[in-house]
Design brief:
With 415 residues, the chain is of the alpha+beta class. It has 10 helices and 16 strands.
Length: 415
């Protein structure tokens, strides 16, 4: 009796069948099948989804976002500023050359509204400020000679000397004397400052579209000499009063002048270049940039000094200036019709309409009572084989061909 041939392992047979099945399925072709389902509620859902998608693309994508345009953000920009006006303090008259820093007329500048002046400082020795840590002392033993505090005003000599006023003592330092808080005098320059005028000359260029424009209207007869900005009547007269800028930023001028602050003048150039160039206009807005509700980071001040000689010795006047810093910020976006984004967004819109069919198919296959009938009608498998003859009007004998029945007593009409 011949010996039985060994059978291959069960796992190998399963793997071979799986590979054959995957290889066979790789060459399958799927084609959509159209089935009309007579169900009013499902039809309402289908049309409602289609309507929402169309409204989204027509109203938001094409009208609001203007996605049919090619766009460019961040225009090339130049800003030139000029301040005019005079003001008074307790001791003198101040003009532009003194209260505007820096004087170059760039996009960022400061207008001084209050100063603390320490006059006649000379190089020598004097008492350290009490604001410096470990500056107070009772005797020379509390002061270390040669010690240098980076937040102080000079090099310590090792002596403990009386303070400028009161009975306190601080360590003596070698530097510019007297120190700031020992002899400073405050002066307010903001009395007439709200009437200062600021000319902001701005021009922009969009290189992609070769479009340029400025914010000053080309008028003759000295138009800029007697006009001030108005959003309706004088949009192209970019001369602003300082008080108007502070008011539009929602700030109190007197308070801001004492503590200092940073105000942003934002110029926005949003241009639809499908329209005429006259429709591309600047839009101005104003807001405070430094966080005034956080005391540690609010306000604005800086120091500078003026040097001169008295009897051959170098002397200086130290000025701690509080002011309103103006930052001119320019941004914008330009758009113009282009065929490529139009075609892309139209194709996206047409494709997205198919979401309605996907949603309704999911409802039919998941929640409807006749979901099995629908599944059977929607998904068919056909084998490419030689045709078999059948009697007139009859179906093929295979069970898989039962869908050729022309009537369905309990079919999709009941869905």
């Amino acid at each position: 009796m011949a010996a039985a041939e060994p059978k291959p392992p069960t796992g190998a047979v399963a793997a071979r069948r799986l590979a054959q099945s995957c290889w066979s399925a790789f060459w399958d072709y799927e084609t959509p099948k159209v089935i009309v389902v007579k169900n009013r509620r499902l039809g309402i859902v289908y049309r409602a989804v289609q309507l929402l998608i169309l409204l989204y693309f027509v109203w938001y994508v094409f009208i609001v976002q203007k996605s049919y345009q090619d766009s460019e953000t961040g225009p090339e920009s130049s800003v030139i500023t000029k301040v005019k006006g005079i003001t008074l303090s307790e001791h003198k008259v101040w003009d532009v050359e003194e209260y505007v820093k820096p004087p170059e007329g760039g996009s960022v500048f400061s207008i001084i509204t209050r100063i603390e002046v320490t006059p006649f400082q000379t190089l020598g020795t004097c008492a350290e400020s009490m604001r410096v840590s470990n500056a107070t002392c009772d005797s020379d033993e509390g002061c270390v000679a040669g010690q240098l505090d980076m937040l102080g005003n000079g090099l310590r000599t090792g002596r403990c000397v009386p303070y400028y006023h009161g009975s306190s003592k601080t360590c003596e330092v070698s530097g510019w004397c007297p120190v700031e808080d020992g002899a400073s005098v405050s002066q307010f320059l903001g009395t007439m400052a709200p009437n200062f005028t600021i000319l902001i000359k701005n021009s922009i260029h969009y290189p992609k579209f070769q479009f340029s424009k400025g914010n000053i209207e080309n008028r003759k007869g000295g138009y800029l000499k007697h006009c001030t900005f108005h959003e309706v009547s004088d949009l192209y007269c970019p001369i602003f009063k300082l008080g108007y800028i502070v008011e539009q930023a929602g700030e109190n001028f007197t308070e801001l002048a004492h503590t200092g602050g940073v105000i942003g003048v934002i110029i926005n150039w949003d241009c639809d270049l499908d329209l005429s160039a006259s429709e591309c206009n600047p839009k101005y807005s104003f807001r405070r940039l430094d966080p005034k509700h956080i005391p540690a980071s609010s306000g604005y001040n800086f120091r500078f000094a003026k040097y001169y000689k008295i009897n051959g010795s170098i002397t200086r006047t130290l000025i701690k200036a509080y002011g309103i810093r103006i930052d001119v910020i320019v941004h914008g976006q330009a758009g113009k019709f282009s065929l490529i984004p139009t075609v892309i967004n139209l194709a996206t819109a047409l494709t997205s309409i198919g979401v309605g069919s996907f949603l309704c198919d999911w409802i039919l296959l998941t929640f409807m009572n006749k979901n099995k009938v629908y599944s059977h009608k929607k998904f068919d498998k056909m084998v490419d084989a030689p045709e078999r003859s059948a009697g007139p009007g009859l179906c093929a004998s295979e069970p898989s061909q039962q869908d050729c029945v022309l009537t369905d007593a309990r079919g999709l009409a009941q869905l």
